[in-house]
Fold this sequence. Notes:
- By secondary structure, the chain is α+β, with helices and mostly antiparallel strands.
- It folds into four domains: 4-95; 107-195, PAS domain (Beta-Lactamase, 2-Layer Sandwich), CATH 3.30.450; 199-271, Orthogonal Bundle (Helix Hairpins), CATH 1.10.287; 279-446, Heat Shock Protein 90.
- The protein has 14 helices and 14 strands.
- It has helices spanning 4-26, 28-58, 71-106, 125-131, 135-138, 143-146, 150-158, 197-233, 243-271, 283-298, 318-334, 366-369, 381-387, 393-403; strands at residues 110-114, 120-123, 165-168, 176-184, 188-195, 279-280, 303-308, 312-316, 341-349, 352-359, 407-413, 417-424, 429-431, 442-446.
- Strands 11-12-10-9-7-14 form a six-stranded mixed sheet, covered by helices on one side. Strands 2-1-5-4-3 form a five-stranded antiparallel sheet, sandwiched between helices.
- Helix 9 (243-271) packs parallel to helix 14, helix 10 runs parallel beside helix 11 (318-334) and helix 11 (318-334) runs antiparallel to helix 14 (393-403).
Amino acid sequence: MQDIRWSAFWLALLLIFACLILWATHGAVTALIVFSTAICLYLAKHLYWIHKLHRWYQKPNLSSIPNGSGVWEDIFADIYHQQRRYTRNKAQISSALDRFMHAASALPDGVVVLNEKDRIEWCNPPAETQLGLDLGKDTGQPITYLVRHSDFLKYLQEQDYSEPIKLKSWRNPEITLEMQLIPFSGKQKLLICRDITQIEKLETMRRDFIANVSHELRTPLTVVSGFLETLMDMEGAVPESTRSYFGMMSEQTGRMRHLIEDLLTLSQLESGATATQDTEIDMQAQLNMLMNEAQSLSNGKHQISLEADPGISVSGAAEELHSAFGNLVSNAIRYSPAGGNIQLKWYRRGDEAVFSVKDSGIGIEQKHIDRLTERFYRVDRSRSRETGGTGLGLSIVKHILTRHQSRLEIESVLDKGSTFSVIFPKNRVIIKHPENASADNAKTTAN
C-alpha cells in the first residue's frame, strides 16, 4: 500500500516546481491560479472518496465496497480484507457462543451470568425453573430484585464465595438449593444453582439411621456391660481360668459404648438440632478441668503444662467446646509415648484467640493431615485399636468448630510430634481486664 504522506509530498513538490516555471514564463497570477486549482481538485477528489467511504460504512457490505482510485484503491482493498476477517471472526465467535449456550442450557444445574453490578446478563432454563427467572423479561435486572432470600443477600454482600450456601427454595419450601458465586473476567460473576433436595433427604436418612441404631444399641450394651461387671465382682462366679476372657469382653463392650456415644454426639451435631449457645465461657475453669482430665488420663506418664492468658475468653457452648478441647488433649496423650511432653496453650494471635495442644508423640505424615477429620479415618488402625480410639473424635471436633465459625489447624512432623490449634474468629473473642490478673500468662505444670 502506498504511503499517502509520501504521495502528497511528491505531488506537492511537482506542483510547486510546475508553478515556479509558470511564474517565470506567464507571471505570478497565472501560477497562483494553477496552484489553487490543482489543490482544490486534489482536495475534491479526497472528499469524494471520503464521502463514498462514509456512505458505505452506514451499510457495510463487501459486495458494494467502492473500488477507489490511486491511494484510495489501496485503502478500500485493505478495508475489504479487514472486513472479511471481521466477518469470519464474528461467525466463529457467534458459533462458539451458540455452542456454549446450547451446552449450558443442557446442564442440569442452573447457571446465571451476572455483570459487575450483579445484573442478569444471561441464564439457562434450569435457572429459570429453580430461581423463577425469565430471560426475556429479567435481562438487565439486579439479581437481588428476584432472589430475595436473606441468606443469599448476606452471601452476596460478604463477598466470600469460597464455599457454597444451602437454602430452602422461596418458591417451594420442600426444595433445597445449593448456590455458589464464581467470579470471572474481572468483576463478572457466575451463579451456579443446584437442586440438592434428594441428597439432603439421603443425608437426613443416614443421620437418622445412625442415631436410631446407636440409640437402640445403647440399652442392650448397658445390660451386657452391667452383667459382666456384676459377674466379675461376685466372688467365685467366674473361674480364674476364664476371668481374662470376661475382662476382654468388658473392655470391648466399653469400646462399643464409647463408639455409640460418639456416633450419637456426631449425629446431633450434624443435624443441627440445637442452636449454638452464645454465652461467655469461663476459660479458666475450662482449662483447669482439662488439666485435671489430662492428668487422670496420663496417670503420671507424661509431663503436662498449661500456659494461659487470663485476659481473653470466647462466647459459645461450653459443653461442646469442652468436648472438642478434650478430644484434642486425649489424642495427644494417647499418641505420645511415656515420658513425653504435652503443652496446652490459650493465647491471642492478632484479633483471634487460639487454643493449642502440642505433643512430642509419633507425629503424622503430611499425606494424612487433610483427611484426619473424616469419620473413621485412621492413620494406623492397629495403633488406634491399642489406644482405644473410635475414629470419630476429630470429626466431632470439626463439627463443633464449624458451629462456632472456628477452624482447626494441624502441624505435624513424623516422629517428632504434632500441634493441633483451634482458632476462634474475632467476633467470638472477648477481651477481659481482670483486676487481679497478672500481666503475664498463667503457667501450670503437672507430671
